Structure of UDP-glucuronosyltransferase:
Amino acid sequence: MKLQLHIFSCVFLGFCVFRKISCGNILVWHTEGSHWINLKPVLDTLVDRGHSVTVLAPNMSFFMDTDEPSRYHYEMFNVSLSLTDRNEWLEDYFNFSFYEMDQMNLLQIYIKFYQLLSRDMVFRLAYCDGILQSELVMDRLLKGKYDMIFADPIHLCSDLVAETLDVPLVYTLRYSAAHILEGLCGKVPVPPSYVPGALSKFTDKMTFSERVQNFLFYAVMDVSTVTLWTKYDKYYRRSTTYCEMMGKADLWLIRTYWDFEYPRPLLPNFKYVGGIHCSPAKQLPKDLEDFVQSSGDDGVVVFTLGSMVDKITKEKSNIIAAALGQIPQKVLWRYSGERPDTLAPNTRLCDWLPQNDLLGHAKTKAFITHGGTNGIYEAIYHGVPMVGIPLFGDQSDNMVHMKAKGAAVIMDFNSMQTEDLVEGLKAVINDPSYKENAMRLSRIYHDRPVSPRDEAVFWIEFVMRHKGARHLRAVAYNLTWYQYHSLDVFAFLLATGALALFIAYKIAKFCIIKCCFRSHYKRKND
Amino acid sequence: MKLQLHIFSCVFLGFCVFRKISCGNILVWHTEGSHWINLKPVLDTLVDRGHSVTVLAPNMSFFMDTDEPSRYHYEMFNVSLSLTDRNEWLEDYFNFSFYEMDQMNLLQIYIKFYQLLSRDMVFRLAYCDGILQSELVMDRLLKGKYDMIFADPIHLCSDLVAETLDVPLVYTLRYSAAHILEGLCGKVPVPPSYVPGALSKFTDKMTFSERVQNFLFYAVMDVSTVTLWTKYDKYYRRSTTYCEMMGKADLWLIRTYWDFEYPRPLLPNFKYVGGIHCSPAKQLPKDLEDFVQSSGDDGVVVFTLGSMVDKITKEKSNIIAAALGQIPQKVLWRYSGERPDTLAPNTRLCDWLPQNDLLGHAKTKAFITHGGTNGIYEAIYHGVPMVGIPLFGDQSDNMVHMKAKGAAVIMDFNSMQTEDLVEGLKAVINDPSYKENAMRLSRIYHDRPVSPRDEAVFWIEFVMRHKGARHLRAVAYNLTWYQYHSLDVFAFLLATGALALFIAYKIAKFCIIKCCFRSHYKRKND
């Protein structure tokens, strides 16, 4: 394996010299799930361009198959957590998101969510321990002579390692509470008047009442998060905080774009590279192509609930299958659970689907999705209208974005009945506005000066060429929160003003007394 | 002339079809001075790409030579102002900037500046009248069937005409008080803690005292500007304001970049295309090349005070010429005034210089500049360190930027003595840090995903293709200032909180009285 890699490196180096580009040595921080799926095409492009890519991978991972032959080198580390513990947490989280949440009041939801996040933080820090507390791993990283670290900041401690290795750090971020990670740590201004809080399900166009709620939502989320982060701050231990360390990243590659986001302020070191993983559709395998073609003019509907959710309850699957049976389209449903009793002949269940190739097929009329960013971006890329059945995390918010842009309808997973889904499907398939809006988003996606993948690769290479991107970093990162918001200036001006008023008052009083006293004295003497 | 243009249009149309791009019909708003010089290369590129470009030109212009053979069509309009009136104002303005300002206190400067701006506003509105009040011109513009208007917003009313013609509007802007035009009208967040007020001469790294001054500077400038703008608002007459109309522009092409600017927030419809006019150096004319080569290893210094200033006082020119005579380099000085008595043999005076080609010459060691953006960008492009002698407008601020980035020293035009200039020149030529920093800025300039001119052209074409760029426009433009800053929300929450406290107090009071009364009653009855 090592010899193979050495040969690879030599070939790459030759390739770089030939193409007159400087080849870098990139350390990629471990990540998981759809984040890993999203990252891989960028890593492939970096390898194609002759860079050496090493991926930090834990001994327990859902998605990183480090045994498979790969174009990257894997740097392994051990995490003292069992996969069972993690799975239990995941199951709890899914149960909460799918079923329990609907039975709870706001306070209960808040407490449960806070507890889940607290438990999750322990896991995240265990991953940090696996790297930072292991002399062997740290020694290998030091000896690796990396030119930069490329990390998704939802997995912690890349900033600490970047500091130890003294190399630049580039973040790639999707799941973000805009007003928290990007706002508090990334120093991007986030006016609550038109930037809806992440998970708030508001759009950028808010009524007065929504703006009030959004304002309060910001306050609650900010306070909760900063409170939660004290655990991270303790781990970070130095004369800094977790959030301050995040602010040291050279560049943030945000994995959305203005086809998906509501336009909002950014800083020069924030680059929007949404749809980084998208690519033109390839030919389908023969059996799938035959199935799709057999749909005739009605076309097909593609349905998946994402890479994290394989099974749903029998009751739900029956409701869904019954709905799918009522539309004239054929349906391809990625589902590995028990076969629903109501499954109609027009619907085919598959353990896996070539999602991107299907969405790019001319016969595809709609996409039923859980609202993960990767799937949404493939639908945008190919201009396919969506029916969203969001399940957890940012999925509800994502689908609200697509609905606001007129390219989707949203179902509520818990309360959804057969007729709701039928109605939703008929709407996006038969009402031409959904297709038109999906095509408009597709045009926006495709019509930009540089493709998202090229832009991401450009900035990664830029950071390696220049050992950072200092010219894009605002001074905001060096200010405390009260300096940033000019609160010290405001307090000073207020105090000065008050003092000036007080002195003026005292002088006036003195003059009046003097004046009255004199006239009083005068009158007395007269 | 008209036939020629018709043939041109046909050729262009054929060219467009051949290149499979849709050719547009662009109306360019009149502009002046360095703004016009800066715009021309973009217009040339647009013409090269097959678009039809029509430039609105007034009958009186300093820079637009509408009689010269040109690749653009000129749409003429009359302004009822004499060139003498305008020249008088300019002379007043220059006198104030060059000489009077130094003898004045802050209040006097403020009042004089306010008066000058007020007089200037009358001129600007006269240009608007020349277009909007002329049925003939407006009729021709309506019949022109333009696809968009491309305008520098320092010249007014392009927004009103864009609304009348119902076409998208793209701004190209350099001279801007960031916190006024871009902040108040463009809705870009401008935190006073690290975004220095335009003309304040602060950098982004401010001490507490500077932050206090900057905060106050914002307040004074904002209030003064909004007061001044009431004159414009009256002219705009409709249910809107001058500033609100500016906010309707589809896109803002800002003619700076992060080589020049301090990193600060932006919005997605703000594109930084600084150095849009720069190009590689061409071969010098033989006599100039011989002069440059004759400098040997010492090289040459290029000196110009810009396109607006031809002459300075005899005293000043003698001070400058004496300094130039004391350096070993040869000097090329663009100067059409009286020959200074102290002029040394190493200095050649010229009425005009091929500035860009000279700055790109290997033998050029330094650039003495008034600090206009165009010249600075050419110096950045070629990596030449600068000695700044700022005269008026944004020039002081521009040079402060270059000094902060370590690529320039600054002279004070009024107090500068011969030895100051000699010292400044020796510093930037002999201290390698200036050259290194200039080269660093040059690398930043050149190392971006798309060249500034290509990016500007891309977005202009985008706006024509999509009839705007709505997906980049933040909802901020639809909010009032108090909604934008959540002041109504804040007031509501404050009022609600106060009411809740009041009710709680009343209830508590009621309970206490009830309780006391009962015990009192009880005791009485016992």
